[in-house]
Amino acid sequence: MHTHHSKLCITPPHMLQEIVRNGSATQRDLALRTLITSEQMRGQRRIMKSMSAFITTIAPAGTKDRAIYDAKNGSTLPGTLVRSEGDLVSSDLAVNEAYDGSGVTYDLYFDIYGRNSINNNGLKLESTVHYQKGYDNAFWDGKQMVYGDGDEDLPPAERLFNRFTIALDVIGHELTHGVTQYEANLAYWDQSGALNESLSDVFGSLVKQYQRKQSANQADWIIGEGLFTPNINGIGIRSMKAPGTAYDDPILGKDPQPGHMRDYVRTVEDNGGVHINSGIPNHAFYVTALELGGYAWEKAGRIWYKALTDKFQERSTFQHACDLTYETAGELYGANSLEQQAVKKGWDAVGITVGGDAPTGCLSTILGIFGIKATAEK
Amino acid sequence: MRIYFERSGGIMGLKSSLTLDLDELPPAQAGTLRLLLDESHFFTLKEDLSTRSVHDGFQYIVTVETETDTHTVHTSDTTAPDELRPLLQELHQIARSQRKPKV
Questions:
Q1: CB of A147 closer than 8 Å to CB of A78
Q2: Would the CB atoms of B78 and A77 count as touching at under 8 Å?
């Protein structure tokens, strides 16, 4: 059963658009805010783009607007405002990490791809730190980023996780869920969900590489380095270079990510393994970036960004992602260009052929529940 | 009385679970759990309390079995009702304290 949380859904977007075009200044402001926050607007980028000419009330292009809140170990969001844009450095490390990390993420999107914040319209970047107690996670709730402190309330010998703001790529990962929500709005289950997860890892990793000024072959392509304490045998939560090798630990178990379609994991847990099968498109991006050399955000990142914002749709599969990034590379750099060939090699490396018919995982997931391995599914 | 607790999802997509038999717990801990169960009005909660898909959020399943009754609740970080949160937090703390190497 699904409940619509947004009361705003009762006003259809086309009516709001009329108000924006023909209403008074106040009505227009209200309608714009409604449109921007309404869940109905997610993914309706065609409308969003046609609206941009009317937007007057949001930050000018290139102006960061960050707000950091403190949940004080509770669950109420967003919590107490503790640092706004331009405020002095806080005495709280997590607050500063969330502030600086969302700033670097904003910079990558703006400097390289010309994107003005999550919605490309200067949306305020809101983050909450110190969420709950012993909360070993970070998430995007549809409106903001949220970070836990890991096991910082336990004695050092029992800690497995550090605070989640410690990893810049995790901040880039969460913020990118916002970007995806406003663009392709990839449904968060099965392959479209794994693709959604992969895009967050791709741009999270690029944020870290951009900050460190690392080329593709200098980067470690690890997601979440620093999240584990020394009590865990692992370097991070995922590896784009070698999916399945980020950790192997007596308590956490082994990194379950596949890096090839032959190892695709069929499961109903984790929304159909969105954090597991994301290893496949992650590795395709890595191979493409290595093939192209130089800074990964410049070419590989630009191809993936354009595919995310102009091509991917709500139920895009891995095969669609392959075909559409290939098509995008052709548009940006020319048919049969080195860039387009690199994209092809990237997907070839994970068992997906341009124009092919890789399994979508939907039927195989259902069969998998009954213990049947589907090998011929299309 | 038995409590089964499962947490899944999150940015790592890992699952952790816990089964508690209150009769076998230290009386103080069992007492705390009984109190939190009462305060959550557990047996009157709707079964499906996770209606919103949050990216990287955790999903929780709590099942409580008494001699006469069994009730299961599915919920998440952002949709759990306030009265249930202290119980989720306590179960998570116990699950964390019982983390052991897998054999």
A1: no
A2: yes
Question: Per the structure block, which two tokens stand in for A327?
Answer: 């098509």
Do residue A20 and residue A86 come from a single domain? no
17-46 of B, contacting A, C-beta below 8 A = none
What is the rounded distance in angstroms from the CA atom of residue A202 to the CA atom of residue A207? Answer: 9
Return the residue of A nearest to B8 by Cα: A270
A130 is catalytic: no
Rounded CA-CA distance A313/A124 in Å is 25
How crowded is residue A154: how many other Cβ atoms within 10 Å of its Cβ? 17
Range of the domain at A221: 190-369
Same domain, A243 and A340: yes
Cα distance between residue B16 and residue A71, in whole Å: 24
Q: Are residues A148 and A234 in the same domain?
A: no
Please give the pLDDT value at position A41.
44
What span, in angstroms and rounded, lies between the C-alpha atoms of B96 and B18? 10
Inter-chain contact A134–B102, Cβ cutoff 8 Å?
A: no
Average of pLDDT values for A247-256?
A: 96
CA of B16: which chain A residue's CA is closest?
A: A252
Please give the pLDDT value at position A40.
Answer: 41
Q: Can you give the pTM of this predicted structure?
A: 0.86
Whether A20 and A76 share a structural domain: no
> What distance in Å separates the CA atoms of residue A289 and residue A15, rounded to the nearest whole number?
44
Q: Closest to B54 (Cβ–Cβ): which among A142, A151, A237?
A: A142
CA-to-CA distance for A260 and A352, rounded, in angstroms?
Answer: 9
Residues 118-157 of A with CB under 8 A from B: 132-134, 136-142, 151, 154
Per-residue pLDDT band for A375 (boundaries 50, 70, 90) equals: very low
- Reported as a single tens digit per residue, the pLDDT across A141-198 is 999 999 999 999 999 999 999 999 999 999 999 999 999 999 999 999 999 999 999 9
Distance, in Å, from the CA atom of A199 to the CA atom of A324, rounded to the nearest integer, reads 14
Q: Are residues A134 and A228 in the same domain?
A: no
* Band of pLDDT at residue A55, cut at 50, 70 and 90: very low
Domain assignment of residue B49, given as a range = 2-97
The larger pLDDT score, comparing residue B101 to residue A349, is at A349
